[in-house]
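Quick illustration, no need to memorize.
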Amino acid sequence: MSIPTQPAEDESHPARPPSAGTAFNTTLRGLNVLQGLAKRALWFAGSLLAASGVIFLIVQTLPGDIAQATLGLNASPEALEAIRQRWGLDRPAIVRYLDWLAGLARGDLGSSYRSGQPVAQQILPGLAVTGWLVGLALPLAALAAVPLGAVAALWRRRFPGAVASGLSQVGMAVPVFFTGVLLVVVFAVELGWLPANGYTPLTGPDGDPAQWWRHLVLPVAVLVIAQASLLSRYVRSGLVEVMTEDYLRTARAVGWTRWGALRRHGTRNVALSVVTVLGLQAAALLVGAIIVEQVFQLPGLGSALLRAVAQRDLPVVQGIACLLVVAVLTISFLVDALYLVIDPRLRSKARR
């Protein structure tokens, strides 16, 4: 007795057009994503407003007199009062905060006490350096961590897995500054392949792409080693957990290979944990970049922040701190947006 089968599609059996219900469900999913993004945008704005208040409060409560620190101990009371009036320090704190907040809404971070230049113009070169460090290190760390974590998970009871796990443990245990010093000793001092410090712009009158690349190799390598080591541990844990799930064992039972089953059924679940850690590590990279900038003497945001703190240049300190907060909140917003794209369950929750 033969088993009836569904006939193959040909000219006599044209493909069915998508039903109205399918189109409605697609539209509904799109609206759920937009609604979820709108809620997260409101949280972004509220978090930024609260962070700006905290930054202003902390900076304004720093001990010492800014005018006195600027003019010196021998300054006359008239000169001190004049500089306080020029900088607006004689006004109430709430008025100064509202003025600063209004400037932030216009994209104006204020003017430096020391140079008189706009804060945005003063920190823009440092932002470019730090941006290159983080922008290059994060994707390279992800590219290195995914295969390293996969090897550690799939061959966790064999020699390749033990080597991959050991490398990630060493990378996590060694401090960033020690890794930087070690790379400088090996590749700059002993071998002489790369410069030990300094920075050359990529473009502009002083730009040199070859020197720009050579000056960034070691700092980016330090960040990649630290971040890839940590990220690979999460990739390994996610893959090990997925491989014990019933749906993956079922896929293997019906004929899927291990790699094929993971790629078809386990990638999305692992991607959620990877995206979470990438978001957290992107924020941590901003802090790690400050340390690396000091090791390699790069003129990034970290150097500008330390210099502004030493000079008590409060507008610059506030501007850099606010810029870092915006970067962290933006990364969190993008991670939440990726959640909605990767996990359909979150799209249904966004309606509630």
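The chain has a mean pLDDT of 75.
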